[in-house]
Amino acid sequence: MINLTNAIPFAEGGNRKCFVHPEDKNKCVKVINAESFDKRINNLPWYKRFKDNSAFDDNLKEEKGYLQHALINQDSKTWKHIAKWYGIVETTIGPGAVTELIRNNGEIAITLEQYLFKDGLTPEVKLAIENFHDWLRETLVLTKNLLPHNLVLKIDNEEIIIKIIDGLGSKSFIPLPNKSNFFAKQYVERRIQLMWSRINWDLSGRKGNWK
User: Fold this and answer.
1) Would you say residue 19 has pLDDT above 80?
2) Nearest partner of 99 among 129, 70, 58, judged by Cα
3) Is 27 left (phi over 0), alpha (psi -120 to 50) or beta?
4) pLDDT at 45
5) Cα–Cα distance for residue pair 178/134, rounded to 1 Å
6) Which of 21, 88, 153, 157 has its CA 20 to 30 A from that of 33?
7) Cα–chain-centroid distance for residue 158?
């Protein structure tokens, strides 16, 4: 069991807290924020309250995202833009999803959101985004909305490589993209369009609805 009792998270989202693995600084442990999870369950529409609470567990959703067809038995190119997955383990504060912690020169990599707010859409990061989108089209890896705070920038021989650290899996209510390349291509293109919409929204000062 991993001891996180007195650990301080290095990042915290709406549903999970992220900790550096106490035994491996290159791994991240994501633990459900119990308080926000309970609040989320209590605020569900009545028709969703019949589901088991596990249906809303982000760790289990992430595990399912890593088990998608596009990532089974694939080569290193397929994994170029995704943080590695190590499974779900027990910690002293609840189950934790363990993934690769992306670093640059020993420091935790910054998110695309942080970069855009600081430096804007530079030619270097625009090229990295375009390369990332080409990879999505080639591999047909399914993701939820590609939000800049769920993407980090890895520097490899001066090349910027965008890495997904959260949000794998399909948002499609009917799972056609999981079963058909035709629908997967349409799904991926929509995610790419929405990613540009979100980036432009961030850069414009977040006015209106980003979608």
Assistant:
1) yes
2) 58
3) beta
4) 72
5) 19
6) 153
7) 23
What is the band of 54 on the pLDDT scale with cuts at 50, 70, 90?
A: low
**Structural domain for 37, as ranges:** 11-203
Q: Considering its fold, how many domains does the chain have in total?
A: 1
Residues whose CB is less than 8 angstroms from the CB of residue 137 and which lie 6 or more positions away in sequence, other chains included: 185, 188, 189, 192
How far apart CA 167 and CA 16 sit, in angstroms, is: 13
57 touches 32 (CB < 8 A): yes
Residue 100 lies inside a defined structural domain of this protein: yes
Query: Which among 165, 170, 208 is positioned nearest to 187, based on CA atoms?
Result: 170
Q: Tell me the one-letter amino acid at 93.
A: I
Which whole number is the average pLDDT over 17-41?
A: 87
The residue type of 156 is D
- In angstroms, the Cα distances linking 45 to 19, 37, 52, 193 are 31, 15, 14, 29
- 4 within some domain: no
What rounded mean pLDDT belongs to the chain? Answer: 91
Mean pLDDT of 82-105: 97
Helices 112-119 and 181-203: crossing angle in degrees, nearest 10, is 40
- What is the pLDDT, as a whole number, of residue 128? 98
Q: Is residue 141 part of a domain?
A: yes
SS3 content of the chain, % helix, strand, coil (to 5): 40, 20, 40
Average pLDDT over residues 64-76: 88
